[in-house]
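For reproducibility, we list the full input for the zinc ion complex.
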Amino acid sequence: MNLGTHIFFAGVVTAIFTGNPYFTLLAGIGSFIPDLDREYLLVSPKAFCEEQFHRALFHNLLFLSGLFFVNVWLALGAFLHSFLDSFTTEKDKGVEWLFPFSRLVKRGRYTLAAKSKDGACKLELVDQNPPDRVCFINEDSPETTQLSDPDLKESRAVPWRRTYGPAANGQMFDRWLALASFSMLILYAVLNPGFAMAGKNLILSTRIIPPMSLLTGIVLVYLGGWLKKNNRNRKGYLTFFVVGGFFIISSAVLSVGGVSSYVFPLGPAFVAAACVILFVEGLFVWRVSTRGGRKAMV
Ligand SMILES: [Zn+2]
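The corresponding predicted structure, in tokenized form, follows.
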């Protein structure tokens, strides 16, 4: 989806459910965060292409859970971003919700074969005796992923790890949703003068400084990533990353007062116990399903 669609959608959902312009602003900024995984921040363009980090690295449930403990509203914006991306097609890469765990599974059992003569499509078994014990049911279709942007093209057959939907990036549904979300946000502000007034007061207060510093930092990092992607000089993009990082850290420092008075929505005992239980259950199901060299499917 386009960036504008993400911002307006996160904004209107948060405005309607909280009626709070500060939370709305934070969710809007949070919706900028996931696509930073497109900008080759941490890896070389070659590794990026091989590992297919876009729609995986910052679009998954583990990353969102981490962000949840930094700020609930940033996490909500980032979640709504990934939620919308999961409605996009195989060509646009959908969303890899279970990254990095999904990368433990290396192959699919079946491949989708299209026979052009009679137009029939069917699933063909890739291998009777796969070397890996755990597989996903099938592979991404090479025909469809060949249509992806050059840096998102898969160079080999990969298991079906992502969630896909029917909407293509930047096409009719995307454009409609941007327009609909924007108009609903305006309608909400017009019909709720308290929301609009609180928004105006927010803009004129010092509370606006930390989120604006964060937004400036994220935009600078995007610009640095764009320079890197387009092979501009190294000094140029590094400067953007460093200055952007400075703004992001400043935002965190300025928010320290807010963080110290912030109450986590989940008790730490629940989180710790939940992590242990989920891990043990996962291990148990894996061991039982693959006992005695059996092949299992996710
Ligand atoms: Zn995205």
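The longest strand covers residues 108-115. The chain has twelve helices and four strands. Both points were considered when choosing residues for closer inspection.
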